[in-house]
Amino acid sequence: MKTLTATAVLAVAAAALTGCGNVSFGSGEETRSYTAPAGITALKITGDGSRVQVTATDTPTIKVSERLRWSNEKNKPVAERLTEDDTLTLAAKCARATVGFSRCGVSYRVQVPRDVPVEIDNRDGSISASGLAGAVKLHSHNGSIEVTDLRATSASISSRDGSLRVSGRATTADLDSSNGSIVATGLTADRLTARSRDGRIKLSGDVKTADLDTANGSIDVAGLTAERVTAKTLDGGVRLGFASAPTHVRASSANGSIRVWLPTSESYAIATSTDNGSRTIDPSVHQDSASSRSVKLDTRDGSILVNSADQRSW
């Protein structure tokens, strides 16, 4: 194990507060930039606050810029940079404030080779990533996550309290937000799982199998090319618009309407059920109980409408 060298630029402004005995506070910031040694093929970041930004490039090495900020000298963050085997690990930690207001955090701007696996766990701050092609695992305890131009073999992206926005492609994608929306636009994946306890789910793109589940929020799918889609919400409407004929559709809502748009080039075995609402199927959508293309729609409180997708412009 070895510690990387760093070039630091330090700017500190100290201020003393009167009326607080001999208690003194200071604020400041420090910026460091460095390059990881050759041979590093994986990146891990554990943040205690502030933003983490990772961008994939065609360069062969990892380049890091970290910015430390603090408002209390007793709470100045500690940033560690370690290499072990082929992995670069960045870790930041703040002490807990003892008196009054305290701001502390370390933000990262990192450039990585495209195929490098990236794992980030940020306690209190947002994460943004672009162009990553290796395995991706991103988690924020309290902050949003935005991923663009994804090219990963696998992607696991989650936030306990924040929204997720994802675009690009992944062989498998697992998106999870405890308290926030999930927006995956222009996403290509063999398999997608999207779960939210309290937030809407919005999806477009080309996904072979999609499993969408929210406890409190709507599900909105527009212009999707897919084979199998399951959409479930306890409290919200479901809108599923298909650009190509799916083979398996399941949509359910405990409290909300269901709208589905299907291409009329194929026939479907359609089953609908609602305890309180109308059920309408456009005559241009061909029904055949023997069809291998199955569509089942179920809501306890809301209407169900199946329409042609032929004239839709997503």
TrEMBL record:
Bias-annotated ranges (Polar residues): 273-294
Region ranges (Disordered): 273-297
Entry superkingdom: Bacteria
InterPro entries, per database record: Toastrack_DUF4097
Location of the DUF4097 domain: 171-296
Entry protein name: DUF4097 domain-containing protein
Record organism: Actinomadura livida
